[in-house]
Design goal:
single chain, 133 residues, three-stranded antiparallel beta sheet, 1 helix
Length: 133
């Protein structure tokens, strides 16, 4: 068992530089206001949660990328949380912990992230399905 742990530790290479991000995540390194596909936004949780809004103009699959653990819900402005379409980890060394995707129609949505710890959370709206590796 000790040999297995040592082998895994040796195989996991540390990040030496930022990962090359796929096109749909290229805005992750830029900071801006509001949830958008062109930049990330920093929000401060209160009581372990944040809530923000996003407007979708064209139907499609959209994701919420986050830099830490948290429970992400997306709901119509006046409705119940939607069922997620998929969830996956962010690219290695990118700083993105996970991306949760939803099928969204045009309209206003409420994005809630709960079970947060820490001072600030980095979020970004992502359009489309994950890039194939």
């Amino acid at each position: 068992m000790i040999l297995s742990v040592m082998a895994l530790a040796m195989a996991a290479q540390p990040c030496t530089k930022s990962a090359e991000l796929p096109r749909e995540l290229s805005g992750w390194a830029r900071a801006g206001e509001g949830l958008d596909t062109r930049h990330a936004t920093l929000l401060s949780p209160r009581g372990g949660r944040i809530e923000t809004r996003v407007t979708i103009r064209k139907a499609g699959i959209f994701g919420i990328a986050i830099d830490r653990e948290g429970w992400i819900d997306v709901a119509p402005a006046r409705g119940k949380p939607l069922r997620m379409a998929s969830e996956n980890r962010g690219p290695r060394c990118s700083g993105i912990r996970k991306i949760v995707r939803y099928r969204l129609r045009p309209g206003a949505y409420r994005v809630t992230v709960a079970r947060l710890d820490g001072k600030q959370v980095r979020l970004m709206l992502v359009h489309g399905l994950p890039a194939r590796r």
